[in-house]
């Protein structure tokens, strides 16, 4: 078994140190995978990704990237570890043009700017046409493209996304998920948090299910899709999992 | 009759140079810096210090009654004022930010600094008016009915150069883009790897440098007094709000409206009421467009 690219071990974190939302969550993401974290509202999915990104203080546990401990690293330093994060909302600089958004993404990757911009435009050809427009003027799907494109400009090894399909129509969500498959194909490992469980698991290798700040189930994506507990929670029927 | 246009533009240039710093601290550090007037004052006095040390007067540049000695003093004062402002940020505002101080705390700290700064200038330099040099301005007729002093044209030229340089800095440089990014969304900026502390340092440096230019040119046109910057505070904030607090270029437009309104008031013999008239105009504009001339709706 290879060493994980991202290892989250027994993490306790929250917005208020005396009221943690995560109560000892652990997960691993291996190189080349798409891993999805699922869970109902309030399960701690976004809290987990924010804690990994350094936006929330981790009061217990550790986070490592390729074996290096990044627990407590300041958010702006994470990109130097080649970890990029796309938040759920307000994930573009709306007043800046698409090109300026992309340029900001390459802040710590200036040497590779031209090549990386070409790679990103190959993935998202529409961005070239939209380059001069203010990102705030774009549609939801186009904004998501800019957000992911900007994150990729840093040439990350790990891309973390918080609900990339949030607020998008089912058709647009499918477009975003198919774009993520292409991102994976160019060698970027992906960790995402999603409410749209079925669609997310379809493109994922593995998944984790959180409930009430605890990790309840994990496994490969196919087994989670077929798991009646997960199915009950996220794919339609009633569930016992949330109460367990 | 059109004389007020020339007078108003000179006044607007000085207001805008000072107000840009307020706009930047408001948008990036997210508080209203009521000590901006004193930054302007300190800059003017630093220039006086170097003018005195050099002992060569302020020179001339053709018909303009100031030359390289004063321009050199401006550069020195920009550096010295920036250092003072960075030290103050390190000693006062940074610890407050680190403790997540609420906005009103930062504003009151700035108020306190403003008082301290004014008293300190009075203590060190004295309360009496001082001058870089004595000169008799010679006006010439630029257009029929509009007389200007060559120094006024130089002031407008310096301000325009400063605004163009600022525009190029904000749009063409990486730090400029980073500053705009932090201004819009500090969290996303950090996620993107932007070092917000570096952006804050540049915010202070640019704001203090432009305020220094305003302070020196104002002092050259009038006199140095410990209250000179404080007296500019009201028009500077009026320009910021009128132009749209979220828009740097709006601040320049706001300054133009404020400067022209003040000049019109003076030309109508209402010099004593110019502050009131300016605020009436500002309120009238805000009633129609609450976000200011170039501001965005929240």
- Report the mean per-residue pLDDT of chain B as an integer: 93
* Major beta-sheet overview of chain A: 6 strands, mixed
* β-strand amount of chain B: under 5%
Strands ordered across the widest β-sheet of chain A:
6-7-8-3-9-10
Report the uncertain regions of chain B: none
**Major β-sheet profile of chain B:** 2 strands, antiparallel
Element string of chain A (H = helix, E = strand): EEEHEEHEHHHHEHEHEEHH
- What's the total number of strands of chain B? 2
Residue fraction in strands of chain A: 15-25%
- Nearest-angstrom radius of gyration of chain A? 17 Å
Ends of chain B: how far apart? Answer: 40 Å
List how many beta strands of chain A DSSP finds: 10
Number of helices of chain B: 11
Can you give the helix content of chain B as a percent range? over 70%
Q: Compute the average pLDDT of chain A.
A: 90
Q: Largest interface, by Cβ-Cβ below 8 angstroms: which chains and how many residues each?
A: A-B, 26 and 17 residues
Detailed description of the structure:
The complex is a heterodimer of chains A (244) and B (298). Chain A has 244 residues and is of the alpha/beta class. Chain A has a domain at 92-155. Chain A has ten helices and ten strands. Chain A has helices spanning 45-52, 75-78, 98-105, 113-123, 126-130, 140-152, 170-185, 197-203, 221-226, 228-234; strands spanning 6-13, 22-29, 34-38, 58-65, 68-69, 83-86, 158-162, 189-193, 206-211, 214-220. In chain A, the strands form two sheets. Chain A has a six-stranded mixed sheet, with helices on both faces. In chain A, strand 7, helix 7 (170-185) and strand 8 form a beta-alpha-beta unit. Chain B has one domain. Helix content of chain B is 73%, strand content 2%. In chain B, strands 1-2 form a two-stranded antiparallel ribbon. In chain B, a hairpin with a 2-residue loop joins strand 1 (140-143) and strand 2. The A-B interface holds A 53, 55, 74-80, 85, 87, 90-96, 100, 103-105, 107-108, 150, 154 and B 174, 177-178, 180-181, 184-185, 187-196.
């Amino acid at each position: 078994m290879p060493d994980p690219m991202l290892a989250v071990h027994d993490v306790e974190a929250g917005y208020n140190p005396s009221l943690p939302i995560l109560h000892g969550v652990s997960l691993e993401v291996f190189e080349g995978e798409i891993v999805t974290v699922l869970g109902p509202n309030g399960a701690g999915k976004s809290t987990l990704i924010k804690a990994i990104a350094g936006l929330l203080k981790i009061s217990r546990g550790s986070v490592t990237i390729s074996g290096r401990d990044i627990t407590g690293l300041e958010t702006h330093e994470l990109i130097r570890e080649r970890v990029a994060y796309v938040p759920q909302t307000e994930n573009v600089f709306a007043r800046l043009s698409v090109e300026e958004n992309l340029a900001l993404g390459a802040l710590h990757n200036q040497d590779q700017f031209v090549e990386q911009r070409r790679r990103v435009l190959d993935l998202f050809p529409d961005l070239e046409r939209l380059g001069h427009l203010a990102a705030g003027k774009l549609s939801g799907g186009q904004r998501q493209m800019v957000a992911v494109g900007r994150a990729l400009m840093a040439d990350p090894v790990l891309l973390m996304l918080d609900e990339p399909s949030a607020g998008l129509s089912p058709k647009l969500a499918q477009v975003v998920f198919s774009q993520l498959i292409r991102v994976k194909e160019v060698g970027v490992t992906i960790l995402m948090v999603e409410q749209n469980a079925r669609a997310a698991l379809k493109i994922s290798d593995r998944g984790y299910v959180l409930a009430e700040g605890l990790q309840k189930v994990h496994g490969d994506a196919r087994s989670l899709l077929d798991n009646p507990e997960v199915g009950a929670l996220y794919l339609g029927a009633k569930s016992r999992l949330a109460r367990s | 009759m059109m004389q007020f246009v020339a007078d108003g533009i000179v006044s607007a240039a000085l207001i805008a140079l000072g107000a840009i710093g307020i706009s930047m601290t408001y948008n990036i550090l997210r508080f209203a810096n009521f000590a901006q007037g004193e930054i302007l004052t300190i800059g003017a006095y630093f220039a006086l210090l170097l003018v005195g040390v050099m002992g060569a007067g302020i020179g001339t540049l053709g018909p303009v009654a100031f030359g390289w000695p004063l321009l050199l003093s401006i550069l020195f004062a920009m550096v010295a004022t920036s250092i003072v402002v960075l030290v103050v940020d390190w000693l006062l505002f940074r610890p407050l930010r680190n403790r997540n101080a609420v906005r009103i705390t930062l504003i009151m700290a700035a108020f306190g600094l403003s008082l301290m700064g004014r008293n300190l200038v009075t203590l060190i330099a004295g309360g009496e008016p001082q001058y870089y040099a004595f000169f008799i301005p010679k006006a010439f007729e630029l257009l029929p009915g509009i007389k200007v002093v060559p120094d006024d044209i130089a002031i407008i030229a310096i301000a325009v150069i400063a605004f163009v340089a600022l525009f190029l800095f904000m749009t063409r440089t990486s730090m400029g883009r980073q500053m705009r990014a932090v201004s819009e969304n500090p969290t996303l900026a950090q996620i993107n790897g932007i070092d917000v502390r570096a952006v804050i340092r540049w915010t202070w440096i640019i704001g203090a440098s432009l305020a220094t230019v305003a302070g020196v040119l104002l002092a050259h046109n009038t006199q140095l007094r410990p209250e000179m910057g404080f007296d500019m505070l009201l028009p500077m904030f009026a320009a910021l709000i009128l132009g749209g607090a979220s828009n740097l270029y709006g601040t320049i437009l706001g300054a133009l409206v404020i400067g022209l309104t003040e000049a019109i008031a003076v030309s109508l013999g209402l010099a004593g009421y110019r502050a009131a008239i300016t605020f009436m105009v500002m309120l009238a504009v805000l009633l129609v467009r609450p976000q200011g001339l170039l501001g965005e709706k929240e």
